[in-house]
Amino acid sequence: MERQIINKKKRVFSLEPNKNPSAVFTRKYTRHLVPALKKLNMNKNSSQTNQQTVKHEVDMALALSAQEFAWSRFLLQKLSSSKNPTTTTSSSSNRIRILERSGKEGGDEDGEIEKKLKELQKLLPGGEEMSVEEMLSEIGNYIKCLELQTIALKSIVQETT
Amino acid sequence: MSGRRSRSRQSSGTSRITEDQINDLIIKLQQLLPELRESRRSDKVSAARVLQETCNYIRNLHREVDDLSERLSELLANTDTAQAALIRSLLTQ
């Protein structure tokens, strides 16, 4: 996010709200999803609009609206190969290991953290294939995009009620 | 038995996290998670707790998205009203 900071004491906020990343994402998301849903609706005669198809479009819109992030690529991959569900046995799964903290008590705690990190890795699309640093930076914007997606979906649902 | 390490994968296989990286992650997650932001009884929340809350939060978000998709698909099943409303919402972008 770029903010114009002038030499004065006042801080100036961007005059271009369209560049606000949250707004950009939400706009992209609805622009992807709504037409896709319309298309689904129009093809209703041939195949039934079941929940899985809608979910597919929902996820697809998410991945397409956040292409600047690594996790979206993994999500796209997963979605496009969703016709043939292959269980990805990640042979190159990055194992998370924590440096031994010398002389510190609570070896259990380290194991606990490691366990939680692995869990987190599974929740993030492509988390298991990313490097650890990448995952650490991606997890933040993934959460943010999920939140924005939820808000967008709620407003779409309210529109059609 | 000691001293022999058989690694099938090189560098990208194992990555070690330093304590600093963990701390950075915890701080960032703490700012993102609503529950942890508001209820700060003590300064330090255990790292494992933050990670647990993060996992829970992501799972909740996933479930919420699933619920909303379900509602959306039910709405789409009612053709006319849904179509009209969708077109309406598209036009009011």
From TrEMBL, chain A:
Keywords: Transcription, Transcription regulation
Bias-annotated ranges (Basic and acidic residues): 97-106
Annotated ranges, domain IBH1-like N-terminal: 23-82
Classification via Pfam families: IBH1_N
Highest taxon in the source lineage: Eukaryota
Region (Disordered): 81-111
Biased composition (Low complexity): 81-93
Name listed for the protein in its UniProt record: Transcription factor
Origin species: Cardamine amara subsp. amara
TrEMBL record, chain B:
Keyword presence, Repeat: no
Matches recorded under PROSITE patterns: BHLH
Coiled coil regions, renumbered to chain: 58-85
SUPFAM superfamilies in the record: HLH, helix-loop-helix DNA-binding domain
GO cellular component: nucleus
Domain of life: Eukaryota
Compartments, record wording: Nucleus
PANTHER family: TRANSCRIPTION FACTOR PRE, TRANSCRIPTION FACTOR PRE3
Protein name: Transcription factor PRE3
Organism: Cardamine amara subsp. amara
